[in-house]
Every structure is written in C-alpha cells, then in structure tokens.
Amino acid sequence: MGRSQIKEPRSPPFEARPRVQFTSATIFAVQQRSVQDAVIRTVLVDDEPIARRILEEELAEIPDVAIVGQADNGRSAIDLIHSQRPDLVLLDIQMPGCDGFAVLSRLSPLPPAVIFVTAFDQHALRAFDAGAADYLLKPVRQHRLRAAIAKARVAIRQPANTAEAIARTLDISGPGGRRRIVGRKGGEYFLLELDDVLAFRAEGEIVWIITKQKRYLANCSLQELANRLRGQSFRRIHRSALINVNHIRKMSTLSSQRWLVTLSNDLELVVSKRQAHTIREVLQA
Fold this sequence. Notes:
By secondary structure, the protein is α/β, with parallel strands linked by helices. The protein folds into two domains: 35-171, Response regulator (Rossmann fold, 3-Layer(aba) Sandwich), CATH 3.40.50.2300; 182-284, CATH 2.40.50.1020. It is 34% helix and 29% strand. It has nine helices and 15 strands. The chain has helices spanning 24-37, 49-59, 74-84, 100-105, 121-129, 142-156, 159-173, 222-228, 276-284, and strands at residues 40-45, 65-71, 88-92, 113-118, 134-137, 180-185, 188-193, 197-203, 206-211, 215-217, 234-238, 241-244, 248-255, 258-263, 268-271. The chain has a five-stranded parallel beta sheet, sandwiched between helices. The protein has a five-stranded antiparallel beta sheet with strand order 10-9-8-12-11. The protein has a three-stranded antiparallel beta sheet with strand order 13-14-15, with no helix packed on it. The longest helix is centred in the middle third of the chain and has 15 residues, at 142-156.
C-alpha cells in the first residue's frame, strides 16, 4: 500500500491592508498632544511644613504633575532647583533669610515656569508682574491650583517670556533701574548682571552678550538693547557693537577719526567714524 501524501494547507490569500498616511497635520497634532500631556517635574518651596503638605495633597489630584523635591528655605531651594532642573517651581514668597524673590535672583539657569504662593495680596501682584505663570493665595484652593498648572504648561513652552518678565520685576524692585539682562545658552535662560556684561555684538541677526569668560545669545536686536539701556554705562561704538564703558581697558588712535577699544577681556573693537564722538564723550567724562 502506498504511503499517503499529506498536503499542506494552502495559505489564505494575502489581504491588502489600507496604507496609513501621516500628514504634517497628523504629526503636528501628535507633537502638540505630547507637549500638553508631558509630566511637569515640580519643586515645592515653603518654610511651613503644613503648607507643603497641602500643596502635595492637592497636586496629587492633578494628572501629569510629579513632585521631584521639596525645600523649607531659600538657600536649600536654590541648591535643589540647580540639581533637579525642574519644569515648574511653586515658590513661597515670605521666607526667613532668603525670600522667594531672592531665590529667583540667584537661580542660574532660570526654571521655565514659576508659580508664587503667598498669603499677602500685595506680594501676589508683584509676583504676577514678575512673569510667574500664576500666583496662588493661601489657603490654596483646588480649582485655582488647576488653573495655575494649566498656565504653567503654556509658560514651560515659552521660557524666554518668563525669564524676561522676571528680570524686569527684579529690576523694578531694586534701586538703580535696569540691572539685569536675559541671556540664552542652548535651551536654558540666565539672568546676567549688567555690570558683568562687557559688550553686545551683532553678527547678522544674532546678538551676542559678551561677559569676561562666556557669551550668551540675546533675545532682541542691538537697537532694542541700545534703547532699553539708555542712561546706563553702555555706548554704541559701531552699528554692530555696544560696549560697557566701565570695562574699557585701553583706547588707541588708528587715525584722526578711528579708534581701537580694548576691553577688560582683551577683546578689541574698532570704533566707526560715525560713532567717534562716543569715544570723545568717554574721554571727557
């Protein structure tokens, strides 16, 4: 008897599946959703343990918010924020030794978003002017906290706006007018003391903030900076350069209307003929 032959079952015919096409609108929607749903890494700063516990419990009710650290005073808050690099800081204003505004002035780089927490209305108004994503009055209510977190999500995507507003308010709160400028390095923003800035130098549409050891990108044009710093120690010496006269180390004549300025970091800049009167004013001062 012959061996029976076992036939392999025939595979079912391949079913063609519809192709999925990703348009730019689809990708944009996915990117937007990922930003909206991203977990907000948050630091709590308050000298009152009960206040921190209340915030912790209320934040637990809000999705996509993770507390990565807590501090009970300004000095430890600065260290914690520098080490954790959070997206958001909930910052008490009234703290002994180093208040919330002092904490902000010492942070480098700045956090992308800040929500001030205070028991006093006058501090809340100042905090709002500081460019905080929002402010909360104690005792903190859940609906206000949710609204503040929603604003913080927007601020996190616009860190330059937050940094500029914080710089303005810290300057307004202190004597002597404008004393700080915002500089960017990579994706981080820094508050720079004007006294530490040697010059602003334009390269095409880019403006560099030059300090003794580093340089940062400015958030505005050289002309805007010249207007903003009018009355300060900065002078325009060229269409592409604005210098701090307090950092001039040497001035040399190249011709009757040409000068070479050497700054305290040995950077040499030529003064244009059109701005030669600036150097004469410095010499006569």
